[in-house]
Design goal:
The chain contains ten helices and two strands, in the order αααββααααααα. It has 231 residues and is mainly alpha-helical. The longest helix has 24 residues.
């Protein structure tokens, strides 16, 4: 049972990536037999993974038509980002008020790991983006992680994971080397500023940077005009 669970988790990760990066196109019919052959897994594993992705908003299901990759929604993205920004600012404030050496050290460590992968993003974004997103998640959760509210962190985790599709979609789009370098520079500067606000214990400064950083999410993945950053 544990092996099947790990197969389903691995397949779900691959399907999320392929849908987000446009390898599986929006609206594409997800044939279970075809996916079984492509990903070399069992029929039940494919069905379980697709059912999981239905709940996450990557895949749609209709009894008569089966599974399809869902179109992305700019309105949904904006709503998720707005909620995420507000909640992470609350968690940051609560974390600062309980600041200690262990927490500040965890923020420094997460920032260091993120800064390493940011260097790769300007050169090879498609191959670096999954690791970047994991490290970006770890850094944001380090900022929020001292809030002493498991329920708040659970809600933030849900919003972050729901917005993952849009981050990956944005980085799947072609960008010039100049644009990509500018994005990496801006993102790295904002992460550095967030780390410094944490070390200084500056709630208002950290919240201002955090809210701006998250809300600068790239919308060109779903047809809007491109912006500079993706939180």
């Amino acid at each position: 049972m544990e092996k099947q669970g790990s197969v389903i988790a691995s397949l779900s990760d691959q399907l999320r990536r392929d849908i987000s990066l446009g390898i599986i196109k929006p609206g594409h019919k997800l044939n279970i037999e075809g996916l079984k052959r492509t990903y070399n897994v069992s029929h039940p594993s494919v069905r379980e993974a697709l059912s999981l992705l239905v709940g996450e908003g990557y895949v749609g299901f209709q009894e008569s038509k089966g599974f399809r990759a869902l179109e992305a929604s700019q309105e949904e993205q904006q709503d998720i980002i707005r909620v995420r920004a507000e909640l992470e600012c609350v968690a940051f404030e609560w974390s600062i008020k309980r600041s200690d050496v262990a927490w500040r050290s965890s923020v420094i460590a997460a920032h260091y790991a993120l800064s390493e992968i940011e260097r790769k993003m300007s050169e090879d974004p498609l191959n670096a983006v999954l690791e970047w997103d994991d490290r970006n998640r770890a850094f944001h959760f380090a900022l929020a992680g001292n809030c002493n509210s498991p329920k708040l962190l659970d809600i933030i985790a849900t919003q972050y994971d729901l917005s993952r599709r849009y981050r990956l979609m944005a980085h799947a789009n072609d960008r010039s080397l100049t644009s990509r370098a500018r994005w990496v520079k801006n993102s790295a500067e904002e992460h550095e500023a967030l780390k410094q606000a944490t070390l200084e214990g500056n709630i208002s400064k950290g919240q201002e940077i955090l809210k701006k950083h998250i809300r600068k999410a790239t919308l060109h993945a779903v047809g809007a005009a491109p912006k500079e950053n993706e939180a």
